[in-house]
Hints:
By secondary structure, the protein is mainly alpha-helical. It has one domain. Helices cover 76% and strands 5% of the residues. The protein contains 5 helices and 2 strands. It has helices spanning 3-20, 29-35, 37-77, 82-135, 159-166; strands at residues 24-27, 140-143. The termini are far apart.
Amino acid sequence: MTKSYILSILFAVVFITTGLSQKYAYINSTELLIAMPQVKTADSQLETYQKTLMTKGETMEKAFQTEYNKYVTEAQGGTLTGLQMQQKESALGQQQQEIQQYAAEVQQLLGAKKQELYEPILQKVRDVVEEIGKSNGYTMIFDGSVGGLLFAKDADNLMVEVKAKLGL
């Protein structure tokens, strides 16, 4: 036998035994997060924050609607000159732009608030999953909630252990 043939066989044996010794597990992060009281608290805080932001937006919209209705009444009544109509239309257009800008700002603020509230929770979950992965010798732990997991034995589901470590 040649040296390269022996090395090829040795490499194949090492590759096969290494591949067989790897451990994999999975968890459904969506199910886990739903079970966490911290997520319910964060959702409640986010909802309260959203209502606060929406109140200002609704006030802006009501003010616009009032001004628009007033403009329509005056324009139909013939009490406005052409220049006055242009000025009022311009002011209404500006008001409408401000409402649109505020709506975009609200989306950014909500995204930032959600990130602020959820990041500590998600980090805690990541830390626990990593700790369990290291202590149990897992090569990889998959998230079954994202649809990438086609099959897994229940014995490899870490949900019970992760919940226990999180105190759930």
